[in-house]
Amino acid sequence: MEKFCVIYQSKYGTTARYAHWVAGQLQAPIFEASQVSASALKDYEVVIYGAPLYTGRILEAKSLAKSPIKQLVLFTVGIFDPATTDYAQILKRSQLSPLKTFHFRGGIDYQKLSGFHRFLNWGLHKFLAKKSSYSPEEQAFLETYQQTIDYSDETTVLPLIEYIQSL
Questions:
Q1: For 2-106+151-166, which CATH class?
Q2: Does residue 105 contact residue 152 with C-beta atoms inside 8 Å?
Q3: Can you tell me the distance from the alpha carbon of 47 to that of 75, in angstroms, rounded to the nearest whole number?
Q4: Radius of gyration of the chain (CA)
Q5: If the chain, 167 residues long, is cut into consecutive pieces of 10 residues, what is the mean pLDDT of each piece?
Q6: Which of 11, 24, 100, 136 is 20 to 30 A away from residue 18, measured at CA?
Q7: Domain map of the chain by residue range?
């Protein structure tokens, strides 16, 4: 049985980048979630799962929640600053039960967004424009609306690496 592997889902590439950084530092096998069967995950003691955050939700691998994973470590990637974002409700809505969760800051390129994601962002922008005060997340959204921003930072995976190595 192998000790750990990294699996991820990524629509626009930022979560994939973080997954490759983690896998590279741990010298672990890496799989895109859609390319690995749930039964294959039983061969690992720890599965490290990287998931993007979209509209306040974790993009989850359906097979992951049903798979025979012994131990799960989750990392999320989103546009908001993990130092000021409360992830409690996001994690509560999740079907996952990780040992530990790490949050990394990603980025956004509005030119690459799907029509559906552009529509969601447009609607949120219209809604927020009517408000007079904003949460840190709402303020960050307004400041980055229709821009290309990349906050990715490879050094932020170090606490995850240290945690995995301590298991």
A1: alpha beta
A2: yes
A3: 11
A4: 16
A5: 86 92 95 83 89 79 68 90 84 83 89 84 87 82 84 95 93
A6: 136
A7: 2-106+151-166, 108-149
